[in-house]
Structures are given as structure tokens and as C-alpha cells.
């Protein structure tokens, strides 16, 4: 099992953090991982993306040319990264902020209302946590449920923000427990 993922969105949406958390969760399960963050010109409000690989085998190269999964939290990210997906790949897009359908017909798509789902768990800034729970659910074998994210959050989150870990875990768990309608399957 090897899953290559691109997370993308505006700076401030937590795409880099989501990638880091997924990487740490994979490490906690003795997976081989890679995480490469990429920031736009501005941090908050600019574009940000990261490449993550989670694998049962050593990662030969951290560079992702044709990802298995693209997570787009805003419209510019979907426009840019949809074309990168390999045929049959999965595009998860934040339908809370993206009001258009993907254009490719050779990929699978999942309209995920990430902001709305985060708000339902009283975690208004938790769209990235919704994505993590969704990924654990729709990419079986990559991460085994919610438990690895507890370790990852404890490692990734600064001491002053650890007080948010319980709500972040609750958000991940709520997203993991949902059923998803992936189009193109």
C-alpha cells in the first residue's frame, strides 16, 4: 500500500498541519512516510500545499508527480491540482467553499462540506481535521481509524494549543464515522 496525497488550500486553512498530522499518524503505525510543505508568497491568505506519502514500503522519492488523492480546500487549489491527479485518482474538494464541479471525467470525486462539518462539531477552524477523518475512512489501509491521530496531534500541536486536541479528535472522529458518496466508482 502506497498512497500519495496533495493537500492544498489558502494559508490559514491548516493544509500544512493536516499533512504533518497524517505523516505522524502514519509513523505511529510503522509506515514509511514523506511530507514536503510548500508555502505561497504570503502565509495567511496565500496559497499553501503539501505532498504526503504514506506507504508500507520505503519511499524512494518524496516527489509526487501524479498523486492518488488531491484534497482541495479552496477553488484555486482545485483548479490547479485537479489536473495533477492520476486517472482513477480521488479528488476530495471542500464543497463548503467550492461551488463548481470538477471538470475531469476520468477521476473519482468526493464533495466534502468540510467547513460545514467542522462547524457541526463546534470546531469552526477544523476543516482540515474533517479531511483527516474522511481520508482515514475512504483510503482503507492508509491509517487504521482515529487512534493514530491522537498521537499525531500530541506531537504536532504546540504546548499552548494542545487544549484544542480533544475537539480536534472529536472532529476527526465525527468525519470518520460518516458515510461518503464517491462519484465515479
TrEMBL record:
<feature type="domain" description="Pyruvate/ketoisovalerate oxidoreductase catalytic">
    <location>
        <begin position="11"/>
        <end position="177"/>
    </location>
</feature>
<dbReference type="InterPro" id="IPR052554">
    <property type="entry name" value="2-oxoglutarate_synth_KorC"/>
</dbReference>
<protein>
    <submittedName>
        <fullName>2-oxoglutarate ferredoxin oxidoreductase subunit gamma</fullName>
    </submittedName>
</protein>
<dbReference type="InterPro" id="IPR011894">
    <property type="entry name" value="PorC_KorC"/>
</dbReference>
<dbReference type="InterPro" id="IPR002869">
    <property type="entry name" value="Pyrv_flavodox_OxRed_cen"/>
</dbReference>
<dbReference type="InterPro" id="IPR019752">
    <property type="entry name" value="Pyrv/ketoisovalerate_OxRed_cat"/>
</dbReference>
<dbReference type="GO" id="GO:0016625">
    <property type="term" value="F:oxidoreductase activity, acting on the aldehyde or oxo group of donors, iron-sulfur protein as acceptor"/>
</dbReference>
<dbReference type="Pfam" id="PF01558">
    <property type="entry name" value="POR"/>
</dbReference>
<keyword id="KW-0560">Oxidoreductase</keyword>
Amino acid at each position: 500500500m502506497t498512497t500519495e496525497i496533495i493537500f492544498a488550500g489558502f494559508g490559514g486553512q491548516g493544509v500544512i498541519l493536516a499533512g504533518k498530522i497524517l505523516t505522524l499518524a502514519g509513523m505511529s503505525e510503522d509506515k514509511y512516510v514523506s511530507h514536503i510543505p510548500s508555502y505561497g508568497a504570503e502565509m495567511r491568505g496565500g496559497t499553501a500545499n503539501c505532498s504526503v506519502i504514506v506507504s508500507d514500503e520505503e519511499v524512494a522519492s518524496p516527489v509526487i508527480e501524479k498523486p492518488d488523492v488531491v484534497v482541495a480546500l479552496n477553488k484555486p487549489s482545485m483548479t490547479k491540482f485537479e489536473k495533477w491527479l492520476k486517472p482513477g485518482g480521488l479528488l476530495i474538494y471542500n464543497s463548503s467553499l467550492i461551488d463548481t464541479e470538477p471538470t475531469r471525467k476520468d477521476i473519482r470525486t468526493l464533495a466534502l462540506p468540510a467547513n460545514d462539518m467542522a462547524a457541526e462539531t463546534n470546531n469552526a477552524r477544523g476543516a482540515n481535521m474533517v479531511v483527516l477523518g474522511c481520508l482515514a475512512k475512504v483510503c482503507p489501509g492508509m491509517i487504521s481509524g482515529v487512534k493514530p491521530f491522537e498521537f499525531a496531534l500530541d506531537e504536532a500541536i504546540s504546548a499552548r494549543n494542545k487544549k484544542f486536541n480533544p475537539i480536534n479528535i472529536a472532529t476527526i472522529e465525527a468525519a470518520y464515522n460518516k458515510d461518503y458518496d464517491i462519484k465515479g466508482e
